[in-house]
Amino acid sequence: MMKIGKRIVITLSILCMTGILFQTPIFASKIVQTDREINQLDEAGSVSKYHTEGIMGKGIKIAILDTGVDLKNEDITFKKGINFTSGEATDFADRNGHGTKVAGIIGARKNGEGLIGIAPESDLYICKVANDSGKVSFDGLIKGLDWAVEQEVDIINISLEFGAGDKALKKAIDKAMNQHIIVIASSGNIRAEGDTFKAYPGAYPEVISVGMLNLQGEIYAAEFKEKKVDMYAPGEDLTSTYFHNKLTLDTGVSYATAYASGFAALVIEGKRADGDVVNRDSIIKTMKADLNQGIDGAPWYIYTGLVLNIATFVGLILLGIYSVIYYRKTLPRGWPVRMIWSILIIILLANIIGRLMVYFLSK
């Protein structure tokens, strides 16, 4: 009798540990402060998981098409920079702040102070396509896209938007896609209730269009569903870099787009290391699995782990109650002990098979 009791306790402990080690993400974003640096982490632990494995975007080239960058910011380093808003090509300094925030969220360096970006070891290519007032033209953005293609970048981040498309812009997007560059763009901020306008270039089917999640991991506004975005990323109260080496909290689809671009860099590095296919669809699939996508946003299998956790918890509680009753000898000795073991084995196998399924489907 005592041997059976010990075996049951050991099995229950293993199952409990299985549930703890493989829990499914529920919430999306969280700001964690260390001694001197702030990390942009998600509650699911997806970013920290990559970082723990040494995957921080190393070797991934990201072009940031925005208002430039604060050249004196100690948290941001870059490979190259260019300006298409005036005749001074070398003047890509940010005097607006938007580009500096986006660059910090994506790739602020791990240097002991300030902010750690999503992909702190990525190579940033700064392209100033919006002027100091934040205005951008089709011509400027097209030149920025062509320049990014020339630099052979892996990802182009466009946290900007137009209310309509443009033939020349679409041609530039297609050129980038033909070079196997991942283009990630904002789906557009919601300015008022019912605002579901299409934002370009995010609305082009070749581009990964990003919607925003709030701090609870829910879709920030129902209008994003109408826009039919490709994926959602945290965008509420994100810590970002600013002038004079200061940090700010910002909310907006621009910053969710930056978060997605940084995360895409981690995904690409991880897939290349594993020899997996790297393309638009495989990256979207993995990011949807790793980042909570809000109600109606996630692929069906992302909830498998949560269902298994609930089923395991309920099963263990019921078996625990039975064990107490059994040891008090209020049940007949003929009770089928083998059935208990069968149920425990089924629960364990269901956990293993279910979580392996989620792992391979999200690759």
TrEMBL record:
Pfam families, sorted: Peptidase_S8 (PF00082)
Domain of life: Bacteria
Chain segments annotated as transmembrane: 300-327, 339-361
One MF term in the entry's GO annotations: serine-type endopeptidase activity
GO biological process, one term: proteolysis
Keyword Transport: no
Residue positions of the active site: D66, H98, S254
Keywords: Hydrolase, Membrane, Protease, Serine protease, Transmembrane, Transmembrane helix
Name listed for the protein in its UniProt record: S8 family serine peptidase
Species of provenance: Listeria rustica
